[in-house]
Each structure stands twice: as structure tokens, then as C-alpha cells.
Automatic annotation (TrEMBL):
Annotated protein name in UniProt: Pentapeptide repeat-containing protein
Organism: Metabacillus endolithicus
Database matches in SUPFAM superfamilies: Pentapeptide repeat-like (SSF141571)
Pfam families on file: Pentapeptide_4
């Protein structure tokens, strides 16, 4: 599946800025710049807006980014563990080698988002809308996709063990290259999901079926 990449002009020549500077600005907006090595833990920064920019090697642990608006942004080697990013708008964004352990992403909108080699264990996506989203080489162990709406979502070679898709239809979703020992999903929501032959046996076992050679 092809998705739109972040549209960032002069990506290699973006001016460097200090992230903490915006904490004292009224509009809490950053655009057309690059942030490196920022340390911004346990802060509150609701309704921030990030446009057309790069973040590298930044730490935002346990920071409140509720209702954040992120468009045309690349995050590389960034840590958002236990951050609050609920009710957010995230479009044309890439997360590369990032850590989003236990992040609250509930009631958010995702469009053309690529999670690559990223840790999303224990993350919450409940009641979110995901359209054209790729999870690639990403760990989603014990993540929660309660009552989400999926449209063109790919899970490619991901760890999905103990993830929950309660109330979320997986029709047309391909999980065949990903792995799990257990998965929470109803039989009706599993209809039309693309699985491998091995996964089909796993689901049969979950349903209590006895397979006879």
C-alpha cells in the first residue's frame, strides 16, 4: 500500500530551534524547523501544532500533548513513553525507531501515517479513525484498538501479541506477516481479515476447534 509521505520543503536545510522556547508562546506552534535532542518530560502542552518539520533524538516522556495537531512531520529516535496524545490529529507523519510505550492515542484521527521499527506496546488507540496507516516492523504487544475504524491499514511483520481489537472490524486488513500467541477479536470482526495458514490454525485453536490431519 502506498501512502503520502510528509511534505517538508528543504528538509536537509531546516533551521534548528529550541523546543522549550514554544512552552512560553501563546499559540504553541512550530513549523519549518528541526528539533534535536530535546528533553521535555512531565510537562503539559495541550493543543500544540507541529507542521512541516523534523524531530530527532527527543524525549517527551509523560508529557500531556492532548489535542495536538501534527501534519507533515518526521520523528526519528524519539521517546513519547506514557505521553497523552488523545483527541489528536496526525496526518502525513512518520515515526522511525521511536518509543511510544503506553501512549494514550484514543479518539484521534490518523491519515497517511507510517510507524516503522517503533515500540507501541500497551498503547491505546480506542475510538480512533485510522486511514492509510502502516505499522511496519513494530511491536504492538498488549495495545488496544477498541472500537476503531480502519480503512487501508497494514500490519507488516509486527508483534501483535495480546493486542485487542474488540469492536473493530478487520475486514480487508492483512496481518498475515505478523506474529502473536493470542489476540482479542470477535469472530464477526475477524471476517474478511487476511491471515496466514499458520494464523488460521491459531484462530481455530482460540475458537476451540479440534483440527484433525
Amino acid at each position: 500500500m502506498k501512502i503520502e509521505s510528509p511534505k517538508i520543503q528543504n528538509q536537509d536545510n531546516l533551521p534548528l530551534k529550541n523546543f522549550t522556547d514554544i512552552f512560553y508562546e501563546e499559540d504553541l506552534e512550530l513549523e519549518m524547523c528541526q528539533i534535536n535532542d530535546a528533553l521535555f518530560d512531565n510537562e503539559v502542552l495541550p493543543r500544540a501544532r507541529f507542521y512541516k518539520m523534523l524531530f530527532k533524538n527527543c524525549k517527551f516522556n509523560s508529557t500531556d500533548f492532548s489535542k495536538i495537531d501534527i501534519t507533515d512531520v518526521i520523528f526519528e529516535n524519539c521517546d513519547f513513553s506514557n505521553a497523552k496524545m488523545n483527541s489528536s490529529s496526525i496526518h502525513r507523519v512518520e515515526f522511525k525507531n521511536c518509543k511510544l510505550l503506553g501512549v494514550d492515542l484514543t479518539e484521534s484521527s490518523f491519515g497517511n501515517v507510517h510507524f516503522q521499527n517503533t515500540l507501541l506496546n500497551l498503547s491505546g488507540f480506542g475510538n480512533s479513525k485510522l486511514e492509510k496507516v502502516i505499522f511496519q516492523d513494530t511491536s504492538l504487544e498488549s495495545s488496544d484498538f477498541y472500537e476503531c475504524k480502519f480503512k487501508k491499514v497494514d500490519f507488516t511483520t509486527c508483534n501483535m501479541n495480546s493486542a485487542s481489537f474488540e469492536g473493530t472490524s478487520l475486514k480487508g486488513i492483512d496481518i498475515s506477516t505478523s506474529s502473536f500467541d493470542s489476540l482479542t477479536v470477535s469472530l464477526s470482526d475477524l471476517q474478511g481479515c487476511k491471515v496466514s495458514s499458520y494464523q488460521a490454525v491459531q484462530f481455530a485453536a482460540i475458537l476451540g476447534l479440534v483440527i484433525v490431519d
